[in-house]
Amino acid sequence: MFGKKNGISDSIPSVDKISIIADGAIFRGDLETDGNVRIDGKVIGNISSSANVAVGKSGQVDGNINAGMLKVSGKIKGNVDISTKLILDVTSSVLGDIKTSVLTVEEGAAINGKVTIEARGSQLSTGVGAEPVAELQDVR
After folding, report:
1. Domain extent for 130
2. What is the pTM of this model?
């Protein structure tokens, strides 16, 4: 997920840079990078990365996230726009709209917002009060 394997790069650019907001740290402001980002503390502001972003169990983001790939185990209050894949672990919570190409949701993850999945030029969407996200897998 964070580099090259056998000289072959993933569709997300391989980078040697990583920005870490450690558990207990609070970052106020917008974070823009072409490198990977790991959030175990709290970010109050937007995050933009063309690479991978991970929000750990203790991580909190109060702002929008725009990234190549996102894995969430913590909490996000804001909209999420992911170009390739979004993974929501059992401990994750997203309060905001989601837009991605691939969505993986573990049982127990919480989503409160509109979910839009764009795959192969088509668009599938569900919002609060509409079909559950899990049923979107059957539509493909």
Report:
1. 18-139
2. 0.77
